[in-house]
């Protein structure tokens, strides 16, 4: 047993010396080659070590700077909100300027009227179909029957008036009748309120000639017939046309130019001579 142990020890020593000699011989013969081979062998390990080291460093840097990053994100979010607010305000101002510009054009074309600006205080009854309550009345020169407009078209007329309030009946109410015409063909009809199957507040033009060439996309304006409404106020755009062979006439369904759910400024059109309310 002792003999075997000694033999194993001698074998290990011999192999170690031989391996060491082989290394020394290889280095002395081709140092450059060894360096290249060793480099190739070590490079993957070095790369792994570098990647781990780099990743660890980045993680540590992120952890140490996390509070700064969080603060920067807060600042960026705040700046974005401020920019969005500024853009919204700019958009609102542009929309308001557009409305006022349209009203100014209307006033310049019809300078024989006074235009009384009013604010909506609420609804008369259940909603817009029943009318708007505004903050101007007889003390401001308003009388029953006067026409009401918005910057982009016809709203309706004054149906009731008090000393400092009035009720505006909108054209989407079925009780309101307005003399209108097709802008392109000049064909006349009667406008009245209409609600479709989807409960949309629209209007329709009846009593159009059976041979009328009216079509979707045509503009409807006031005709001035009956002297109840000023002539050529924008009313709406035709979205469909129906033919009634029994009554021998056509009916046009019209989308109003005024969005009655988003009214902001209302203007009551007051003839300068109000002894008799009469419109050209």
Automatic annotation (TrEMBL):
CDD domains: bZIP (cd14686). One of its GO terms (cellular component) is plasma membrane. GO terms for biological process: regulation of cell shape. Pfam families: MreC. Residues 131-269 form the Rod shape-determining protein MreC beta-barrel core domain. The chain crosses the membrane at residues 7-27. Involved in formation and maintenance of cell shape. NCBIfam families: mreC. This is Cell shape-determining protein MreC. It comes from Clostridium vincentii. The lineage of its organism: Bacteria, Bacillati, Bacillota, Clostridia, Eubacteriales.
């Amino acid at each position: 047993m002792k003999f075997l142990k000694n033999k194993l020890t001698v074998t290990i020593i011999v192999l170690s010396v031989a391996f060491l000699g082989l290394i020394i011989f290889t280095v002395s013969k081709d140092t450059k080659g060894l360096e290249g081979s060793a480099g190739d062998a070590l490079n993957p390990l070095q790369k792994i070590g570098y990647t781990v080291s780099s990743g660890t460093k980045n993680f540590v840097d992120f952890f140490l700077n996390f509070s700064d990053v969080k603060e920067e994100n807060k600042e960026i979010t705040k700046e974005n909100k401020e920019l969005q607010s500024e853009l919204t305000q700019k958009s609102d101002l542009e929309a308001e300027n557009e409305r006022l510009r349209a009203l100014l054009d209307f006033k310049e074309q019809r300078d024989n009227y006074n235009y009384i600006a009013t604010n909506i205080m609420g609804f008369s009854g259940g909603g817009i179909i029943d009318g708007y309550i505004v903050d101007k009345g007889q003390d401001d020169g308003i009388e029953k029957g006067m026409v009401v407009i918005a910057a982009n078209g016809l709203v309706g007329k004054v149906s009731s008036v008090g000393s400092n309030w009035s009720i505006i009946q909108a054209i989407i109410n079925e009780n309101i009748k307005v003399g209108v015409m097709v802008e392109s063909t000049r064909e006349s009809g009667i406008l009245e309120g209409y609600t479709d199957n989807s409960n949309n507040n629209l209007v329709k033009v009846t009593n159009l000639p059976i041979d009328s060439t009216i079509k979707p996309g045509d503009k409807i304006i006031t005709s001035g017939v009956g002297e109840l409404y000023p002539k050529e106020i924008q009313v709406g755009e035709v979205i469909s046309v129906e033919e009634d062979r029994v009554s021998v006439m056509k009916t046009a369904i019209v989308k109003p130019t005024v969005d009655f759910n988003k009214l902001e400024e209302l203007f009551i059109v007051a003839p300068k001579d109000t002894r008799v309310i009469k419109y050209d």
